[in-house]
Request: fold
Amino acid sequence: MAEATAELIGGIEAGGTKFVCAVADPSTGRLIERTSSDDPAFLTGKTEEDRGRLLGNVVEWLRSRPGRLTALGIGAFGPLNLRTGTITTTPKPGWQGFPLRRHLQAAFPSAKVELDTDVNAAARGEQRWGRGQGCSDFLYITLGTGIGAGAVINGNLLHGLIHPEMGHMRLPRIAGDPFPGICARHGDCWEGLCSGPAIEARAGRKAGGIPAEDPAWTYAVRYNACAIANLICVLSPRKVIVGGSGRKAGGLGEEAFFHRLREEVQAALAGYIAAPELGEGIGGYIVPPGLGDDAGVRGAVALAMDALR
Ligand code: ZN
Reply:
């Protein structure tokens, strides 16, 4: 009986191709139970009905957990208007202009609801429990269906005008590279060149089947390194955490990917920024998430904990 009246907090990782939901202990953030919408039909459909069905499932699952939801954190794909809690110019059919925060607040009227970008949420999770612990200034980058990054600056998440959209920065083209990029807005921005679908479009096959020696990996590593070097120059992070499924780099593999990425970042910076972290310490500077593939959903739970403060 005690369990039925227990307080819970919830987290929703609203990703580009998948939603992950969890409930957690409000005082520690420990995950109690989780689920995910592994059915891509939920999100790749072209209609508002798909969106309604997905969110209906999310709400139903959260409501049927044994406990009272006191706070809900959402780390969502964007772009977002964080003032209104609305998804704005996403290319995802059925989601443009959707008031995500208001929708979930209406479903859980007594819960405090906190919305941020998926990468800001993951950065918050890494700050609380992962590789960002004790680190005042760091970046969390996700390489996946899309590319984005969250920045913790002086211990706080950077929002600014709306929120950073680092994945859409423009990169100098590698000489002779014929690939035009796939971003619907910019073509060859970082995401247009290095997202999972971009790498697959370049190689002409699924990432898992792209062998280590395929030039697609060389291009991806080099463009990623250029983007990270740019961010190091602009924000001077004390650490760069690289998450998302793209870090596993299909046929190249995660270990080789990180090894080459670190070398290419050093090459891009060309020794200009004198810090041991960018020299022999780079293995501890550009790192995978401490929370692994749970960075997103645990980050959403961290937002819920923030909301209760
Ligand atoms: Zn773009």
Residues 7-122+293-308 form a domain with the Nucleotidyltransferase; domain 5 fold (CATH 3.30.420.40). The longest helix spans residues 215-235. DSSP finds nine helices and twelve strands in the chain. The mean pLDDT is 94.
